[in-house]
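Usage

Read records sequentially. Each one opens with the input sequence:
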Amino acid sequence: MAIFIDTWGWLTLRDRREARHREVDHFYREVRRRRDGVYTSDYVLDETITLLFRRLPFVRAKESLQYIQQAIAEGYLHLEWMTPQRFEKAIELRYRFQDKPRISFTDLTSMVVMSEREIEEILTEDDHFGLVYSLIGHCLGYSHSEEVSRCIHKRFP
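and closes with the structure output:
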């Protein structure tokens, strides 16, 4: 089973001060042990790198970035690049979900990648992934918002 890691997932995995660090670290190690496909995007890494260097001491932030780079180099982490076509699809989503202005453009690009790759799980705490992603037609067919939230966050209830 493939999983997409959002900015929150990377920050929580790499920042020991985060409340759910141990839980996320254990989950990530289990995913790697099972050799599940792990995906992220260049837009997510843009946010992640910015926040790692803002929140952590330089040495720890650098180690965190090298950790992610190593996972990419080893082929364990699949880095998805925002193409012009994906960018346009994300703009279409922005227009479509005009009633959800709090969803970041980066999150919309993540939804595009997840939809294309048929990824149904995401490591995030953003509730809007469940609500919007179910409208795009992927999230195990759940329609009730509480069920959708459990789908997306089933490992982090």
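Summary fields computed downstream for this record:
- Residues 131-157 have pLDDT under 50 and may be disordered.
- The longest strand covers residues 38-41.
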